[in-house]
Amino acid sequence: MSIFLLIRHGETDYNKKMLFPGRLPEIHLNPRGRKQAGLLAEKLLAAPISAIYSSPLDRTMETAGPLAKALTLDILPTSGLLEMDCGDWQGQSLKKLRRQKIWQSVQQHPSLFHFPGGESIAECQQRIVQVLETLRLKHSTQELIACFSHSDPIKLAITYYLGLPLDNFQRLNINTGSVTALQISDNGSRLLMMNDDPSFSWESWKPSTSPVTSPQSKP
Known about the structure:
Layout: E1 2-8, H1 13-17, H2 31-44, E2 49-54, H3 58-71, E3 75-77, H4 94-97, H5 103-108, H6 121-138, E4 144-149, H7 151-161, E5 179-185, E6 188-196
Parallel strand pairs: 1-4, 2-3, 2-4
Antiparallel strand pairs: 1-5, 5-6
Helix pairs in contact: 2-3, 6-7
């Protein structure tokens, strides 16, 4: 069974301001995001990782950088790990989008939702699963593979491999700078670890008072 480490990029200012980054270029890690990338490298330094793949966006490549340097591995940009293509919503604020009538479709039936000018949530799930299956066949069954991606694609991969309804994927949470481990084979899959966040501390933790609002509620 191949084991995939699905790693979300570190924090950016778009995350802090609740903006939809989509696939905009030149969105870089902020100071906390760079710290998260360093903590990930420390945590995974002893892991027998054989390959590092990453969404080509700046924030994912920057998050993968410290680990790749520590392990002396190349980062392999992989378009299948890209963020959800949110089309016309790219760069807009969550506050503004909540006022739109179409917002209810995102909340009630995400499996049927298609971002205006972008891709559907179902298409994004198909894309992330396809790239993981391609990598699984490329590598041996004993390899540990790191994939740096984004919140929604990671949640959609978990949903698929656990056989969960697509409409429930927003119930999952993937923090910035976190690690999720999936074991995948021809005979099935297992979730070994989810949303392990090396930067988490109880001192800075505050319970969320906001309802789940979007497939990218934490872009």
